[in-house]
Amino acid sequence: MDWDLKEELRDCLVAAAPYGGPIALLRNPGRKEKPASARPVLEIYSASGVPLASLLWKSGPMVSLGWSAEEELLCVQEDGVVLVYGLHGDFRRHFSMGNEVLQNRVLDARIFHTEFGSGVAILTGAHRFTLSANVGDLKLRRMPEVPGLQSAPSCWTTMCQDRVAHILLAVGPDLYLLDHAACSAVTPPGLAPGVSSFLQMAVSFTYRHLALFTDTGYIWMGTASLKEKLCEFNCNIRAPPKQMVWCSRPRSKERAVVVAWERRLMVVGDAPEGIQFVLDEDSYLVPELDGVRIFSRSTHEFLHEVPVASEEIFKIASMAPGALLLEAQKEYEKESQKADEYLREIQELGQLPQAVQQCIEAAGHEHWPDMQKSLLRAASFGKCFLDRFPPDSFVRMCQDLRVLNAIRDYHIGIPLTYSQYKQLTIQVLLDRLVLRRLYPLAIQICEYLRLPEVQGVSRILAHWACYKVQQKDVSDEDVARAINQKLGDTPGVSYSDIAARAYGCGRTELAIKLLEYEPRSGEQVPLLLKMKRSKLALSKAIESGDTDLVFTVLLHLKNELNRGDFFMTLRNQPMALSLYRQFCKHQELETLKDLYNQDDNHQELGSFHVRASYAAEERIEGRVAALQTAADAFYKAKNEFAAKATEDQMRLLRLQRRLEDELGGRFLDLSVHDTVTTLILSGQNKRAEQLARDFRIPDKRLWWLKLTALADLEDWEELEKFSKSKKSPIGYLPFVEICMKQHNKYEAKKYASRVGPEQKVKALLLVGDVAQAADVAIEHRNEAEMSLVLSHCTGATDGATADKIQRARAQVQKK
Length: 815
What we know:
Among the domains are: 1-165, Methylamine Dehydrogenase, Chain H (7 Propeller), CATH 2.130.10.10; 188-305, YVTN repeat-like/Quinoprotein amine dehydrogenase (Methylamine Dehydrogenase, Chain H), CATH 2.130.10.10; 310-559, no CATH class. By secondary structure, the protein is an alpha+beta fold. The longest helix is centred in the last third of the chain and has 24 residues, at 640-663. Helix 5 (352-365) packs antiparallel against helix 6 (369-383), helix 10 packs antiparallel against helix 11 (457-468) and helix 21 (602-615) packs antiparallel against helix 22. The protein contains 33 helices and 27 strands. It starts with 11 loop residues before the first strand and ends with a helix.
């Protein structure tokens, strides 16, 4: 261990994270009255004792330390406040365990891990328990009261069963299990008689097993559900142990508990005899997935069950296939014929694939590189004599061992075992390297394992950049340039996330420089708005061409700036002004009018008042007044046509109101044409003609309107009078068409005779007189008219007419 500890571990509050995690020490935690210079010191070290952080503890008295699953240090104070620190001593956040804990103070605390995250359990001075199963999503649970509990329990621990956190505590000879609903008394099956107190208890790493140390010196081991006893061991020591933890491998049938006193360590299990070790120094036990880490001021060791593959290969006089293969490889290096003898022996038993697999598996559990290489060379040697042995397991083991050896290095200080590495996964390991700011090593591992960029190198570079922006001793320009040179256009890296981190560190200008490298405007703009750089955000949104993004910025600017500044900003951005006008047309009409007034845009202002006269006003006086305002605006805009049209509309509205008053019926909001038509349909022909004169409706249009209206009324007599009133400006073919449309062939024939020569054929065909139409077409000697008549001939009734046309066409074509 690289640390220089002057105090004994027993004089410090100690917390060590699992999976080869860091160690936290709080020196001199017990002295409450001390000068400022003698305040406790919180120190954080790697597992190899390399200092990571050191800070003077200036907060309240601390009761317990613990590490979360994300390697954040949780410091539980006496007042129930939990302070959270990062691996490098940076303060992250704090939270309270509730008012009851604050009032009654904290007697003891435990930090535990579940599948939901990391939890905190508190024992208060009122001898009540408060628990939160996940500090990331804090939900406090006040556990039920233990009946008759007047003093602190002799020992207690947390357990997780059926996805629910429980508390197991001992009060004299009794055990109680607390869940969210009730307090239940439990009894371990098969417990030796005479127990008057439980001195220590320990739950296994996976919460499946429980160990209880009694005042009689017996250690009871069973399932955590307290339904089955595994074994019981008499250690013949009645003194309460300092620590007791489980030591077992995943899927192993062996069960063992490690018990530590001041200078003695004992491993007990199913065997009648335990294994004892003498400790030279005060030590601390850290339970792991597959063993126990034991560290002191000078050493850091790992106690674990020997893996089956290693035991088979290395036990004395072993004849296991892996052992024989290892010997064969060693003899082969010596150029001895014994190598062939060992190989033949393995092959005769058909165990060569098993031997290769044993050597590969044993290599994974070895910590010394030389022994790893020896076993892997043996596996490679055996593979040469197999035809179809899949190489994946060998290659994968070589890769895993290279990664493990790199992180086990003294300077890195993450002593993971192979089992822990597989449980942790490579992604979590990379996260932990990033947390320690070991970016080069993390990138080398990603490149060596050929991980996808988004999951590997890109993600690590993004973390590096977020760390880089926190270096306040480097100028913004240099930091931005360094980040861009390193990251470039690396896929999966978001410059906006890095800029957000820079802004969070108070480096706004650096954040803006970093956003210049962000290619996605949708990521730039929200952060610029958050930084109150709204005008720059508007420019970026306009450059992107994304109208939704522009609208977002405009609404933000509208709420942020006063009305005058907002309008001035829009005047400098024509595209934004146009989009805002579109928005106002649908949402804020008064704002739109103000915009037009400010810009002296009389043309649009006139159009606005025209629309407003129909949208908002119901009274005729109000509408006319709005139209008069619109006409004035059009005159100012020098648009005389629009102004005259508006004045005509005003006259029409007044006239329509007068007609409604005099004649009844609905005239308002009709067009001039519809008004004329309505008057004709009402029999007001003179009024209709006067209206046509007033509004200068051309004769042709008036004749069409009157023709259509009289036909709709089926007033054929009036229609005939109308047709004879003067020469029709639209001809008489429309009369034929309108009559036929009303299915009145009789009336249509009256007008067919009056149709001019150029439209005679068409009129006759409309009334169904094919023979006369043929005669007219032949008389005109017009081939197009002949073809038209021929197309209307039917074989049964018009055969003679068709023949006559065919002969006439032939004569025309000859000439």
